[in-house]
Structure prediction request, 168 residues.
Amino acid sequence: MFVISHVVALSNNNVIGVDNDLPWSLKTDLSHFKKYTTNKIIIMGRKTYESIGKPLPNRVNYVVSQTINEIEGAIVCNSTENAIESAKELCSKENLNEIVIIGGGYLFRDTLPITNKLIITRVDCNIDGDVFYPDIDLGNWKKLESIKFLKDADNDYDFEVITYEKIK
Ligand SMILES: NC(=O)c1ccc[n+]([C@@H]2O[C@H](COP(=O)([O-])OP(=O)(O)OC[C@H]3O[C@@H](n4cnc5c(N)ncnc54)[C@H](OP(=O)(O)O)[C@@H]3O)[C@@H](O)[C@H]2O)c1
Prediction:
């Protein structure tokens, strides 16, 4: 079975983005993101791709868009379903077993029903934003691990990285 995961950082009030950017600077969380996604297949929405500005190195980058046809260094698909199907085929071919959805709001909402692993960075703040992570019923999820980090010169807020797997 394939693992389809979300890697997401969200505030206490579920904000994930503002003005097509992240609402915080959390250097340690970015390192965690890089470490978790490296050598994996990642899928993102067009706006997230534009906010990052380039394909992320050492990962297979899928971008979902109906307005962009081609990106050098990324595979562009015109629907989330096509991206997932293509990523699954690639997984089988390359002997990989995880597809990581990295955002943003559209992509997380589209794929939550087929997601079986969540790697959530819970950022300890209530903050204004314009993109939100969907409400999830954590009763359907089992916590596997959680690691706490404290606010410091590199990180705007305290945060906790929590890994959940879907209860079958
Ligand atoms: N905190 C986090 O962990 C995190 C992670 C990622 C992103 N973000 C933030 O989230 C924000 C961006 O998220 P967003 O929700 O605005 O946009 P998004 O999901 O990144 O991208 C939306 C775009 O993706 C394409 N798309 C999405 N679903 C589609 C579908 N089913 N079929 C075809 N195309 C589809 C469309 O592109 P076209 O218009 O080109 O057709 C759509 O406009 C930014 O603020 C970013 O910084 C936060």
Remarks:
- The two ends are 13 Å apart (CA to CA).
- Helices lie at 27-37, 46-52, 80-94, 105-111.
- DSSP finds four helices and ten strands in the chain.
